[in-house]
User: Which sequence fits this backbone?
């Protein structure tokens, strides 16, 4: 317990930082399976996002320190270093910050749905056995795994926004968009007719509503 914040200081939990990073990155890595250098760099950047997130969530609340120093007594909570007040979007919108709040539930849905989408995308790739993948989530969108990663990023930003992750998120999303474009060029070279027809039938990012 920190002497400067004897009642509400809820950080310095470095074991939780390490456990959450290992569990989350390990789970996604087991399904994402980066192959090329650019895929490994993109996954490394995503890992950096996760590290920065959990370091501030459980380790050292850098963003809250900055906000308190900038806003002083105008900061909208009386106990800024309690864990519940780390949900900054809830704090500034002046809504309840417990785990049952709408924003917290929505963020969890995005995180878990994104992780499941990454896992199902990898399963479809494995089932295709070096053929063009058009089953599973690939039957609805052409880049389900990247959509899954973006959903995870969006979910964490809603739940626990920080200055570092807010700066990193656009960079990550742009990298996924560029990587998707590069992969489509490679697929068109490898399967010119099949993938061309697949592109006409299946949207890249937003599934068609029947």
Assistant:
């Amino acid at each position: 317990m920190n002497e400067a914040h004897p009642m509400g200081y809820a950080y310095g939990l470095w074991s939780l930082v390490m456990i959450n990073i290992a569990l989350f990155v390990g789970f996604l890595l087991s399904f994402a399976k980066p192959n090329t250098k650019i895929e490994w760099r993109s996954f490394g950047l995503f890992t950096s996002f996760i590290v920065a997130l959990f370091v501030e969530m459980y380790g050292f609340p850098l963003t809250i320190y900055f906000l308190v120093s900038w806003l002083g007594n105008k900061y909208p909570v009386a106990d800024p270093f309690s864990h519940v007040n780390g949900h900054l979007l809830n704090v500034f919108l002046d809504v309840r910050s417990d785990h049952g709040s709408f924003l917290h539930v929505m963020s969890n849905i995005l995180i878990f749905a994104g992780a499941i989408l990454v896992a199902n995308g990898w399963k479809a790739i494995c089932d295709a056995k070096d053929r063009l993948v058009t089953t599973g989530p690939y039957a609805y969108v052409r880049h389900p795994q990247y959509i899954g990663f973006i959903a995870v990023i969006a979910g964490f930003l809603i739940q626990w926004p920080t200055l570092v992750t807010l700066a990193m998120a656009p960079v990550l999303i742009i990298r996924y968009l560029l990587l998707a474009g590069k992969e489509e060029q490679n697929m068109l070279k490898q399967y010119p007719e099949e993938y061309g027809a697949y592109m006409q039938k299946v949207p890249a990012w937003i599934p068609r509503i029947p």
The longest helix spans residues 163-190. The domain at 14-201 is CATH 1.20.120 (Four Helix Bundle (Hemerythrin (Met), subunit A)). Residues 1-7 have pLDDT under 50 and may be disordered. DSSP finds eight helices and no strands in the chain.
